[in-house]
Design goal:
Number of helices of chain A: 3
Distance between the termini of chain B: 117 Å
Number of strands of chain A: 7
Order of helices and strands of chain A: HEEEEEHEEH
Low-confidence stretches of chain B: 15-22
CATH topology of the largest domain in chain B: Helix Hairpins
CATH architecture of the largest domain in chain B: Orthogonal Bundle
Low-confidence stretches of chain A: none
Number of strands of chain B: 0
Radius of gyration of chain B: 49 Å
CATH class of chain A: Alpha Beta
CATH architecture of chain A: 2-Layer Sandwich
Oligomer: heterodimer
Largest sheet of chain A: 7 strands, antiparallel
Shape of chain B: elongated
Radius of gyration of chain A: 15 Å
Mean pLDDT of chain B: 82
């Protein structure tokens, strides 16, 4: 499934499993779908960015930047993230440039239902992670 | 250096700016060319293997035929000998000698075909492994590029030019606000419920004559009657 098809899918089905999706597709050369995920209790705090390569669909949430990490607890934060990686369903912590991100990867042939499951899990994991690890951040 | 080591070196180095490709287009192209080469090598090896295996099959069949001929002629030779026909037996023996030479030749050919086939099979396995390796590496390089491009696209398209990406603190504040709002709504709902049920209780008590104006009026009357009685 390419990103444009996926964007159209979310446009046509904005509500799924009690979640509301608001998608925006970037006009850039590398198309990126920004999905804002809302529930009754949360409202698009952390957008999920979706992009596709030949092999996989990548769903990424940007958590924080290097400048937000309390430098004296940096090593502790890294260890905590590594420890949380396995217990956290479907999602993993990662870094790109100066950003700490959480991401999930799907096979490029995944069905919309799988992608929805991935996106909401990632979104909920990310919200929890930011709260859980906030003590290491300024 | 394996691909992860290369990527690590690049991450640790100066190429840290968002949008700057970790691996230049040239690197990707070299990879892609290596994959194309490996694929064509593999295709060639597979077609050679098919040819060699067909030749081996052919040699095997030929060998069987020759061996059958050898056994057949040995029978003829024995018959000729038992009839005492020495010259005929000799003639047959000469034929057997030719057959044996051909058998030896075919057997050598068969061995060499088989050996060649084994070599090709090993090479194909190796190429397949190599190809998978290249594809895995290419996927890593391309994904790295993709993530960088994605970050750049997000900065360009979704984040206002003058502001950086949302910070965790802002996210936390918003989560807190939203949670507070939700809690407030919940609390308001509870209060409303309580008030409603309080009103209900008053009504019920009044109906039962335990409280309310009717009860008050009755009490007053009773008090007055008592006073009357005393005076």
């Amino acid at each position: 499934m390419d990103i444009k098809t996926l964007a159209r899918f979310f446009e046509e089905h904005p509500t799924q499993d009690g979640y509301q999706f608001n998608g925006r597709l970037s006009p850039s050369e590398t198309p990126v779908l920004q999905l804002q995920v809302s529930t009754l209790q949360t409202h698009d705090e952390l957008p999920v960015y979706i992009t596709a390569t030949e092999q996989q669909i990548l769903c990424i949430v940007y958590l924080w930047q290097d400048s937000e990490i309390r430098s004296e607890t940096r090593a502790e934060l890294m260890e905590s993230m590594l420890e949380l990686n396995i217990p956290m369903p479907l999602s993993s912590f990662a870094r790109t440039g100066e950003h700490t991100v959480m991401f999930g990867a799907l096979h490029c042939q995944s069905k919309p239902q799988d992608i929805i499951h991935e996106v909401v899990t990632l979104h909920d994991n990310a919200l929890e992670a930011v709260q859980a690890l906030s003590e290491y951040l300024v | 250096m394996n691909i992860l080591q290369k990527l690590m070196t690049l991450f640790r180095g100066s190429v840290r700016e968002i949008g700057e490709a970790v691996v230049d287009a040239n690197g990707t192209k070299i990879f892609e060319q290596e994959i194309v080469d490996a694929e064509s090598q593999l295709k060639e090896a597979r077609s050679s293997l098919t040819t060699v295996m067909a030749k081996a099959k052919q040699a095997e069949r030929e060998l069987e035929k020759l061996r059958a001929g050898q056994i057949e002629h040995e029978g003829y030779a024995r018959s000729a000998l038992s009839q005492g026909n020495e010259p005929l037996a000799l003639e047959v023996a000469e034929k057997i000698a030719v057959l044996e030479a051909e058998i030896a030749e075919q057997a050598t050919a068969l061995d060499s075909y088989k050996e060649h086939a084994e070599r090709l099979k090993a090479m194909i396995l190796e190429s397949e492994k190599q190809l998978k390796d290249y594809q895995r590496q290419l996927a890593m390089v391309k994904t790295t590029e993709q993530v960088q491009k994605t970050t750049a696209a997000i900065s360009e398209n979704f984040v206002a030019a003058d502001s950086k990406m949302v910070t965790a603190k802002e996210t936390l504040d918003r989560i807190k606000n939203k949670q507070q709002e939700y809690d407030d709504r919940l609390e308001a709902g509870k209060q409303l419920d309580a008030e409603m049920s309080g009103a209900n209780l008053k009504n019920k008590l009044a109906e039962a004559g335990i409280s309310g104006q009717k009860k008050q009026a009755e009490d007053i009357l009773a008090r007055l009657r008592d006073k009357e009685a005393i005076s």
